[in-house]
Amino acid sequence: MLKVKLVRSVIGCRADHRATVRGLGLRKLQSTKVLQDTPSIRGMIETVRYLIKVEEVKS
């Protein structure tokens, strides 16, 4: 499991990066989501790594 937190604003970002953040389930600044650790989620995280903070969660 991965804990993903939006730490930078999506204002001024590319439209596809905004869509990726939305796809991760993050809406407002400082919002947090716990997601499954899958290759597709990892790819999305890699795309917008400059906007988010990620940490592993023990389940």
From TrEMBL:
Entries under InterPro entries matching the protein: Ribo_uL30_ferredoxin-like_sf, Ribosomal_uL30_bac-type, Ribosomal_uL30_ferredoxin-like
Transmembrane spans: none
Keyword Ribosomal protein: yes
Gene Ontology CC terms: cytosolic large ribosomal subunit
GO MF terms, alphabetically ordered: structural constituent of ribosome
SUPFAM superfamilies the record matches: Ribosomal protein L30p/L7e (SSF55129)
Domain of life: Bacteria
Boundaries of every Large ribosomal subunit protein uL30-like ferredoxin-like fold domain copy: 2-52
Keyword tags: Ribonucleoprotein, Ribosomal protein
GO biological process terms held by the UniProt record: translation
Pfam families, per database record: Ribosomal_L30
PANTHER family reported for this sequence: LARGE RIBOSOMAL SUBUNIT PROTEIN UL30M, MITOCHONDRIAL RIBOSOMAL PROTEIN L30
Sequence similarity: Belongs to the universal ribosomal protein uL30 family.
Matches recorded under NCBIfam families: rpmD_bact (TIGR01308)
Subunit text: Part of the 50S ribosomal subunit.
Name of the featured protein: Large ribosomal subunit protein uL30
Organism whose genome encodes this protein: Candidatus Symbiobacter mobilis CR
The organism's taxonomic lineage, starting at the top: Bacteria, Pseudomonadati, Pseudomonadota, Betaproteobacteria, Burkholderiales
Gene (name only): rpmD
